[in-house]
Amino acid sequence: MTSDNPFNFLPLQPIGRNETNSANAYAPEDMIKIYEQQFLIQVPEEQLTEFLPALKRFYDIDNNTLDVSAIIFEAIAESSIIYNHKIKVGEYQILGGLIEEAIEYDEDNKNEEGVEEDIQAYTLECKRDFFINDVEIPYHFNLFIYGDGYSTLTKKESLLEKMYWFVRGRFEEHLLDDAEDNESLESINEQLASLGIREMDLSTIDGIVNYVEDNIIDDAMVEALNKLLDDAE
């Protein structure tokens, strides 16, 4: 940290000046880095009002450049900013093979003629890696495939998995009896700190878990799952 760079901004090389020659222009990937730093750099409360002017001064940019950096981030970045944390989807892994499950038939399994239809059900152990502030954290879950639908059951081992159950335990009444088995906000933040990740409040954890649930299965994984199902038939 120096007087010219009090917030340890990442040095970036501009590619020229804008059309009005009033500010520097940067490559799209560098614009993303500028945008990320607005949220990811930890700033003491007493310096909050100094931060944004210092960022614009360091990169010699204006408010329009900051607006454009946000648009570029939304358009091409492979990560998301949730409050003061960056989260990114990593690779998936299918662990083991399909396990066929026995299911009980009910009225929903009958066709228009009232004949029971044969619906296959399988479980499959899976893993998806995520990166929080560039720290890799695994997320293990069992995938239950039933006809054309599926559901997931998250394990309780990695920190990200514990965060999921912490959120569910706060909102689902039938889990309250098992609350003593779930982590507390304090214990989650202690584990985050051990990984070099700054603490999170309840809103941030909720946002992280929602992001995980929306991204544990992608098109590439669906394609691999369909191949497994085709081979099993």
Task: Walk me through what this model shows.
By secondary structure, the protein is an alpha+beta fold. It contains 7 helices and 7 strands. The chain has helices at residues 28-40, 48-59, 63-76, 159-171, 185-194, 202-215, 219-232, and strands at 16-17, 24-25, 79-82, 85-100, 121-132, 135-146, 149-154. The strands form 2 sheets. The chain has a 5-stranded antiparallel sheet. A two-stranded antiparallel ribbon has the order 1-2. A hairpin with a 6-residue loop joins β1 and β2. α1 (28-40) crosses α3. The longest helix is centred in the first third of the chain and has 14 residues, at 63-76. The protein is elongated, with a radius of gyration of 23 Å. It starts with 15 loop residues before the first strand and ends with a helix.
